[in-house]
């Protein structure tokens, strides 16, 4: 039940990261990457022949890397989210200009 709740929360969070016009395509791309991981996951015990620590390290390092990359996503609390890539470009340039000022 916990895994199902986490997956549902992940889909909601991921869907909110992308602009409205590209949301379906980009969410499908994320889902495809997840399904490729699900296909490859049963093969991880085969990595144990290189070292007993390799599967555990791999399965622990990938979530940590994705969590670290999530820190690069800008905080949008209290801001209007962009509806198109043009809105995204203008908001990105406005953010970079505002952060560049002392």
TrEMBL record:
The keyword Transmembrane applies. It comes from the Eukaryota. It is a multi-pass membrane protein. One of its GO terms (cellular component) is membrane. SUPFAM superfamilies: MFS general substrate transporter (SSF103473). It is found in: Membrane. The keyword Transmembrane applies. InterPro entries: MFS_trans_sf (IPR036259). Its main location: membrane. Keywords: Membrane, Transmembrane, Transmembrane helix. PANTHER family: SOLUTE CARRIER FAMILY 22 MEMBER (PTHR24064). This is Solute carrier family 22 member 21 like protein. It comes from Danaus plexippus plexippus.
């Amino acid at each position: 039940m916990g895994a199902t709740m986490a997956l549902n929360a992940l889909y909601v969070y991921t869907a909110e990261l992308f602009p409205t016009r590209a949301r379906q395509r980009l969410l499908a791309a994320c889902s495809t990457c997840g399904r490729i991981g699900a296909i490859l996951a049963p093969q991880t015990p085969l990595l144990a022949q290189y070292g007993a620590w390799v599967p555990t390290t791999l399965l622990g390092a990938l979530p940590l890397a994705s969590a670290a990359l999530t820190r690069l996503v800008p905080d949008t609390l209290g801001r209007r989210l962009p509806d198109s890539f043009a809105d995204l470009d203008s908001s990105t340039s406005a953010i970079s200009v505002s952060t560049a000022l002392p």
